[in-house]
Fold this protein.
Amino acid sequence: MKKVKLVRGNNRIIGGVCQSIGERYKIEPILLRVAFVVSLFFINISIFIYLILWNTIPNERKINLKKGTQIRTQILGSVIGSLLGVVFLGGVAYLTMELLNDSSGFLGVIILAIYGFPLGAVLGFSVVKLIMEKKSFNDLNEL
């Protein structure tokens, strides 16, 4: 029996992770999508797992960029995303501290800002990857 490769195909909603896992293990992708959405409420790390799978499962679509350009663009997305993550989560924590008139919560601001760095990097990398995949797919359709 031949196993199906784990590849993100064209029948995707966001990143194609649920679709590719469903095809590989013969599970309806809609069930995996529902399970993922439900897990967002209970498991805080599920979004990281999805993003990691999205970035590691190979894509069926080919991205029409030189390899060096593609990597530089994704690294730039990660850097910008990490800076935005630090500013956003640190800012939210700081505003919360100010609204509660709690000056002792400065450590929480630092912790959330540090947490925002990898979160922003993964999100920035993923957003840039999604934009490149969509643009590449549209370019292929125009041929």
Observations:
- The radius of gyration is 19 Å.
- The helical segments are 17-25, 29-42, 46-56, 67-99, 106-142.
